[in-house]
């Protein structure tokens, strides 16, 4: 699992993220913020800019909208697909070949 090591506000509904892999990228969360009613307070860019990293670490906001996983943020920031772990490394190895 990739871990977010740094998150910086990049304007509007965008966040620049840095990961423990050394990779970085900008994530635009406009679509998610406008899709879910729980995120309605974040439609105000000033409120959105108050995000922080929690212990997971992933982005959290005071309104409680924190359902975007670090893996999803990684995929959005880097454009790389994430390999989800099922706990069965042999099965994962076989499916990769």
Model description:
The chain is α+β, with helices and mostly antiparallel strands and 97 residues long. 28% of the residues lie in helices and 22% in strands. It has a three-stranded antiparallel beta sheet, with helices on one face.
C-alpha end-to-end distance: 20 Å
How many alpha or pi helices?
4
- Classification by helices and strands: alpha+beta
Low-confidence stretches: 88-97
* Arithmetic mean pLDDT: 86
Total DSSP E strands:
5
Shape: globular
Radius of gyration, in angstroms, nearest whole number: 15 Å
Please state roughly what percent of the residues sit in beta strands, choosing from under 5%, 5-15%, 15-25%, 25-35%, 35-45% or over 45%: 15-25%
Give the H and E element order: EEEHHEEHH
Indicate the percent of residues in helices: 25-40%
The largest sheet is:
3 strands, antiparallel
The side-by-side strand order for the widest beta sheet comes to 1-2-3
Question: Top keywords for this entry?
Answer:
97 residues; 3-stranded antiparallel sheet; 5 strands; 22% strand; disordered C terminus
Summarize the structure in short.
This protein is α+β, with helices and mostly antiparallel strands and 97 residues long. Helix content is 28%, strand content 22%.
Helix and strand topology:
Blueprint: E1 4-9, E2 14-19, E3 24-28, H1 30-35, H2 45-48, E4 52-53, E5 59-60, H3 70-78, H4 89-96
Antiparallel strand pairs: 1-2, 2-3, 4-5
């Amino acid at each position: 699992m990739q871990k977010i090591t740094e998150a910086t506000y990049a304007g509007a509904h965008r966040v620049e993220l840095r990961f423990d892999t050394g990779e970085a990228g900008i994530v635009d969360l406009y679509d998610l913020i406008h899709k879910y009613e729980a995120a309605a307070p974040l439609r105000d860019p000033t409120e959105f800019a108050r995000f922080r990293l929690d212990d997971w670490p992933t982005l959290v906001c005071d309104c409680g909208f924190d359902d975007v996983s670090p893996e999803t943020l990684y995929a959005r920031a880097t454009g790389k697909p994430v390999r989800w772990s099922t706990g069965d490394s042999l099965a994962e190895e076989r499916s990769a070949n």
